[in-house]
Amino acid sequence: MIWNETMECMDREEMRKLQSIRLRRVVEHAYHNSPFYRKKMQELGVVPEDIQSIDDITKLPFTVKQDLRDNYPFGLLAVPMSEIVRLHASSGTTGKPIVVGYTRRDLGIWAECVSRVLTAGGITKNDSVQVSYGYGLFTGGLGVHDGVQNIGGTVIPMSSGNTQKQIQLMHDFGAKALACTPSYALYLAETIHNSGIPLEEFQLRAGFFGAEPWTENMRKELEEKMHIKAYDIYGLTEISGPGVGGECECQNGTHLWEDHFFPEIVDPKTLQPVAPGETGELVFTTLTKEGMPMLRYRTRDLTHLIYEKCECGRTAVRMGRIMGRSDDMLIIRGVNVFPSQVESIILELPEFEAHYLIVVDRVNNTDTFQIQVEVRPEYYSDEMNKMLALKKKITDRIQSVIGLKPDIRIVEPRSIERSMGKAKHVIDNRKLV
Ligand code: DLL
Fold first, then answer.
1. Are strands 330-332 and 324-325 parallel, antiparallel or unpaired?
2. Using 50, 70 and 90 to split pLDDT, how confident is the model at 131?
3. What is d(CA 184, CA 420) in angstroms, rounded to the nearest whole number?
4. Is the dihedral of CA 172, 178, 179, 181 positive or negative?
5. How far apart are CA 297 and CA 262, in angstroms?
6. Is 212 in the pocket of ligand 1 (CB under 6 A)?
7. Which of 29, 136, 41 is nearest to 89 (CA)?
8. pTM of the model
9. In this model, does residue 144 exceed pLDDT 60?
10. What is the 8-class DSSP label of residue 268?
11. Is 232 in the pocket of ligand 1 (CB under 6 A)?
């Protein structure tokens, strides 16, 4: 099912024409109404008239998270505060939060984009969706909420937390879909399993999981544990929130709604566009945002783009899974390590749960690389030999894929802290010394 066939299946040439018109408009808007962007463009010697088509986008300046922090709270708004109807914010690990303001029209477009994702995942006005992303300044809860209402579906606005109640109401209300982080979905799946309520009594058939990186193996795990189809939903506060893109029934890449958010992939070091199909850093320009337009915002997310038409009929560009973030990549003893690689390996091995923690430290000037993994109850044993064999199996596998020998700590079932929002998979103690 397709929510907006005109936009989602538009001929690519037509799409570029539309993007060109919209880019000209948003650049005019930013230049004339945002002192921040006027200054940035003047520094590069660029005026709005230089931007005639979408191909001219590379003439525009980049924007980074620090720009939003430096202009905290409202310095990047391009409309008077009286036009702003909602604020969201995202707190990073350091410093001030970044703040985003939306006009009424911005909220409408955001809801439209989430509607496309939900519809692509088979949700209609006859379905109820349990929204277990956090509500509040985080965009997950309210963003998905508005999308469900926009298609006329029934929202169950649970927010995150209170896990027993989540299960009870999901069961009693007959929720057809669940929207939350993949790590919380895993926790909910375990809780369902332990609740004693038979899975058949739930009506759940789809999950819209995002807000953190996850892997194909995690998808398999969630689909098997919950008997659902698990779809990716992608987004970020700076660009709007969830629904910048989402997967269709083919589950073969995340469609980006490029009539509103124009994606580029650049080399994070040189900032030059990469060759088509190559992996690099995802950069977005908002083409229709009024409240806080973003020109060439560097997401730090690493991925690649696929421009071939999808089997579902959509022409909207697809994005490969986010491999990690250019600023989240760990360099351990000189080797680049993405937590998603570790997750993928753990999930390939039937003996382990999808819960893990990577702890990196520096001892005697050498990096240490410890991975705590939880063994599944049926494989847990008091016999030393069995546990040592398990340890060797996972150590060898990780070493052969990543090229670095991890110090594996097998921990008891259910001993790694469960997450209700974005999971924390890495503790890097080296930053503290
Ligand atoms: O996480 C918005 C969101 C809410 C998306 C609910 C999907 C569902 P932020 O808190 O600003 O916004 O974090 C944005 O999270 O740059 C990615 O690094 C990561 N991220 C979001 N979705 C995905 C995904 C929300 N599907 C940052 N896969 C982004 C991988 C994701 N990473």
1. unpaired
2. very high
3. 5
4. positive
5. 10
6. yes
7. 136
8. 0.92
9. yes
10. T
11. yes
